[in-house]
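@channel sequence for tomorrow's demo:
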Amino acid sequence: MLYFAYGSNLNHFQMKRRCKDSIFLKKINLKNFRLTFRSKYRAADIEPKKNSIVPGALFEISKSDEKKLDVYEDFPILYKKYYFYYYGKKVMTYTMTKKTKFRYPTERYLNIVKRGYKDCDLENKYLIKALNQ
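structure tokens (generated this afternoon):
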């Protein structure tokens, strides 16, 4: 199945450790959403926003990878699944169930995300924008 990563799972080393079958396909943009950070974990989340984009990565993952991600993302408590179509193909991602106010991420978490942006060759400007809310 196809999975869209936009936070710490962009980090190739971390993603491989979590999802051994995962294959990075390419970078894509999720349109009409914006990146933010929230909850007590100060983790990445997406929310609808017209004319905004969230850069991320498209991964091919197995059923067992999805189960591991569900555990890691604390599905369905912290995150729920969100599906969208990319060139006719169904893609799964996660979005937080409770839209709490913005919380600046921890340095450790942010460094994992920044490394992921490098790994996937994403433009940092959207990350910087998300951090300056």
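heads up for whoever presents: Helices lie at 12-18, 63-72, 107-119, 125-131.
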